[in-house]
Every structure is written in C-alpha cells, then in structure tokens.
Amino acid sequence: MTDQIALITGASRGLGKSSALHLAKAGTHIIGTYKSSRDEAESVAREIETHGVKAAMVRFDAESEDPGQFADTLAQTLQSTFGADKLDHLVNNAGVGVHAAFAETAADQLDTLYKIHVRTPFLLTQALLPHMRDGGNVLFVSSGLARFTLPGYSAYASMKGAVEVLTRYVAKELGERAIRVNCIAPGAIATDFTGGAVRDNSEINAFVSSMIALGRVGEADDIGGAVASLLSDGMGWANGTRIEVSGGQGL
Fold first, then answer.
1. Of 185, 14, 191, 30, whose CA–CA distance to 94 is shortest?
2. At the N or C end, where does the chain have fewer CB atoms within 10 A?
3. Which domains does the chain carry?
C-alpha cells in the first residue's frame, strides 16, 4: 500500500484509530476525521507518523455537516499535506450507539442514528467519488447485530442493515471504475463505544464472551487489522461483500 492515501472517518479513537495505525504500518498515508477533540486527534496523527507516513486530522461532524463542503476541505488537504489530488481508500467508520428497547426508542434517537450511519456515509461517498482513484476501495462499517439479535439494538441494527444493502448497490455501480466496495461487520468490541460497557463492566464482558466461539470479546486491533487486510491487494477479489469479524459471536 506504499504511497496510497486513506480517509477514515472517526479516526481519533476506537476502531477508527486502530484502523489508521494498521494501515500506517502497511505504508498508507492517513487522513482522519474527528468530531470534538482536536488534541486527541493530533496525538493520533503523531502516532501514525511514527510509522513513516504522513497524517492529517480534519474536523467533521457526521451528524450535522455537509459532506459536499467536506469534500472541498478534503481536496485542499490532499494538495497541501500530501501533494495529491486523489484518495485510494475511504473507510466510513464514524458512528454512535443507542441502546434502547424498541418500544422506548425516541424519534430523535432514530434520526441521529440515520444521519450518522446511513445518510452521511451515502452522501459522503457520493461527494468524494471525484476524489477517488479508479481501482480504489470504499469500506462501510456494519455490525454483527445486523445478523444476530440482542434486545435494545433494534434502531442501531436497522441502520446497519441499510448499510449492508447500500454496500451491494454501490459495488455494482462503481464496478466500471474498478472501485471495490465492501462492508465489515464487527461483533462486540472492548472500546468506549456505548459508554464502554463491554470493556468496563465485567459482568457484561463475561456474558458477551460466553456468546463468542473464541471465548472473548474483540479488541480494537482485531478490527483494525481486518480493515487493513480488506483494503490490501490480497483481498482484491472481494467486492460487494459483508465480512463479519466477530470471533464467531451468536453462532
């Protein structure tokens, strides 16, 4: 992946950060987005650069900002930091979680999930097509919850189901440009997602581990490594595919 450039939304922490670091180890330059903590994002950028690649962090609120305007910012960043005009990889990673029973899920919760998990990945990918190199990659992030069922995640999982359908359509329509489009579906991961319950609550961790064939919850690096693999030439014939990386959760 030497001299390639990847854009990863939500790259300042969790799965996005791990994906950025794994791609950097493979020689890929990184543009990451963050929502609020510039200091945290800049710290990640410095860590990325220890692998001998360039990094830039750009603010982008996936809930409220215009993807078209962000595309203009991206074009400026490509030129100023990387001396380039095209991306090789787009990883639509930014996300939030909502845990609420179906009967108690509020309309504003549903709207937030839709904006961040469906609307923005759709419109951002669309807006960045002129800045994508032919033969590149688009990766959407789904969830194991789109396959197995846990009470309290009906809204979140429904959005991820939409992402999986979107993946197939975008793969079909971008095939003429040889752009591969896939989605990765993580299982339960020990990060700060949804308040860090899987990571910090020993009872929840043990319960979830009991549902996973490999006997433990996932770590961010389990997903970051998989993302780097999916974008590599070794996975060059995977297209329009949902790839679950869950350790065998809910089998």
1. 14
2. C
3. 5-245 (3.40.50.720)
What does the block give as tokens for 126? 């669309």
Task: Round to whole Å and give the CA distance between 177 and 233.
Answer: 16
Kindly tell me the sign of the dihedral angle through the C-alpha atoms of 72, 78, 79, 80: positive
Span 68-101, pLDDT tens digits: 999 999 999 999 999 999 999 999 999 999 999 9
Task: Say which of 34, 114, 153, 156 is annotated catalytic.
Answer: 156
Q: How far is CA 43 from CA 74, 81, 99, in A?
A: 20, 17, 30
Per-residue pLDDT at 199: 76
| pLDDT beyond 90 at 152 | yes
pTM score of the predicted model: 0.95
Average pLDDT over residues 225-232: 98
Please say if 156 is a catalytic residue. yes
> Is the four-CA dihedral 26, 169, 61, 193 of positive or negative sign?
negative
**Which among 141, 137, 155, 132 has a CA at the least distance from the CA of 94?**
141
